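// run 5 | inverse folding | seed 20
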């Protein structure tokens, strides 16, 4: 019915004109005092011709509309699939589409070039900034005082933020260095725990890392980044608390007994830049970590969900099942 109304709206003036011409024809026959049957018969013939031509035009128009609707979401292939124009008006629209498509391709190419330049620049910057970071770490290793340990913890956060910037840029690029393989999840968890051990010790947070025995079809580097982000949040928001890591089936659970997340913030925690109540309390929060984690999981075919209650802690669940991928 939507298509019928659309056709009538598009063809209303030609149909009204043809109907008026049919009426004028019957009226002229009546003026010449021809029998009413003759005028009615002539009008009926005109009406039949009108309906036949209208039905043929409607089905041709309907076929074109359905075909164009099927092209939605295929902008890259649009111009190669659009049918050739049959009238001057359609030809003008097609020329306009060609110009717009060329502008779109130019804009996309320019955007891709700028993105590649940005990633190349920040990649170089990360490698350069790692040199002074490593030098500062070596200097601080000789300082066993409380001040030295505090500086080492802050330096670790700086290094993590630098890596997070590079991951954010790479994730938004046209291509990412994914290496999907059947990996040992326990190895990924141990590496992440070992990396964040200084923060756990300094924050007096105990970690209960249970063996999962799982093998996940994923990318080791990006999956470890997700685990590290969740552990980082646990250390940040569960000071002097307890963090537990375990698995059930093909799901990984990371739970803390920290401050928790307000119920009104839960639906938005994966939004880019959203910090919520806890983030406003911690001025260093960026609202990027969980957004990155969800994007990584989505691209890897995993899922990530968060359950939390204010004042009672948070549990993050990472679903690792990927039934549609097979290892060659």
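// decoded
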């Amino acid at each position: 019915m939507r298509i019928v109304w659309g056709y009538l709206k598009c063809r209303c003036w030609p149909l009204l004109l043809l109907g008026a011409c049919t009426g004028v024809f019957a009226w002229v026959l009546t003026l010449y005092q021809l029998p009413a049957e003759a005028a009615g018969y002539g009008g009926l013939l005109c009406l039949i011709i009108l309906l036949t031509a209208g039905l043929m035009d409607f089905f041709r128009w309907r076929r074109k509309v359905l075909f164009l609707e099927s092209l939605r979401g295929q902008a890259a292939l649009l111009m190669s699939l659009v049918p050739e124009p049959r009238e001057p008006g359609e030809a003008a629209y097609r020329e306009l589409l060609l110009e717009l498509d060329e502008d779109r391709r130019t804009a996309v190419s320019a955007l891709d070039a700028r993105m590649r330049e940005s990633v190349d620049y920040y990649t170089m910057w990360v490698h350069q900034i790692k040199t002074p970071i490593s030098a500062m770490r070596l200097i601080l290793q000789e300082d066993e005082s409380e001040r030295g340990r505090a500086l080492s913890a802050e330096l670790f956060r700086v290094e993590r933020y630098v890596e997070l910037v590079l991951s954010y840029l790479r994730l938004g690029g046209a291509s990412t260095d994914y290496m999907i393989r059947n990996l040992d999840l326990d190895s990924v968890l141990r590496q992440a725990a070992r990396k964040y051990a200084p923060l756990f010790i300094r924050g007096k947070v105990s970690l209960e890392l249970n063996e999962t025995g799982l093998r996940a079809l994923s990318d080791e580097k990006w999956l470890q980044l997700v685990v590290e982000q969740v552990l980082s949040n646990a250390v940040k928001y569960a000071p002097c608390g307890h963090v537990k890591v375990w698995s059930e089936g093909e799901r990984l659970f990371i739970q803390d007994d920290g401050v928790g997340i307000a119920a009104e913030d839960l639906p938005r925690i994966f939004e880019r830049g959203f910090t919520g109540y806890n983030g406003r309390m911690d001025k260093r929060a960026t609202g990027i970590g969980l957004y990155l984690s969800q994007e990584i999981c989505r691209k890897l075919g995993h899922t990530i969900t968060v359950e939390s209650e204010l004042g009672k802690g948070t549990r993050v669940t990472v679903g690792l099942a990927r039934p549609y991928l097979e290892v060659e």
